[in-house]
């Protein structure tokens, strides 16, 4: 798939709807930017830790649980 997009005066480009839909890109998603010679490569970042909704206050136990889940997934352990 090859689509031309225009760079705005603020050096921004719009990702065409067909590309967003194909890759499942949503508002707020992260994209990595890689430069390879004369190419710019955008990749959707798959986040390992689920996003926590804004406005919800994290407790110490929430943070401890998220850390433990991350550590366990990295070493393949379980309780």
From TrEMBL:
InterPro entries membership: Repressor-like_regulatory (IPR052975), SpoVT-AbrB_dom (IPR007159), SpoVT-AbrB_sf (IPR037914)
SUPFAM superfamilies, sorted: AbrB/MazE/MraZ-like
PROSITE patterns registered for this protein in UniProt: SPOVT_ABRB
SpoVT-AbrB domain location: 2-47
Annotated TM spans: none
Any Pfam family: MazE_antitoxin
UniProt GO MF annotations: DNA binding
Stated name of the protein: AbrB family transcriptional regulator
Source species: Vulcanisaeta moutnovskia (strain 768-28)
């Amino acid at each position: 798939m090859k689509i031309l997009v225009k760079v705005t005066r603020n050096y921004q480009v719009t990702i065409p709807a067909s590309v967003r839909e194909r890759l499942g890109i949503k508002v707020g998603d992260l994209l990595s930017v890689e430069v390879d010679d004369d190419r710019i490569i955008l990749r959707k970042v798959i986040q390992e830790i689920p996003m926590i909704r804004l406005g919800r206050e994290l407790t110490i136990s929430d943070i401890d649980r998220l850390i433990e889940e991350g550590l366990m997934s990295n070493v393949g352990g379980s309780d």
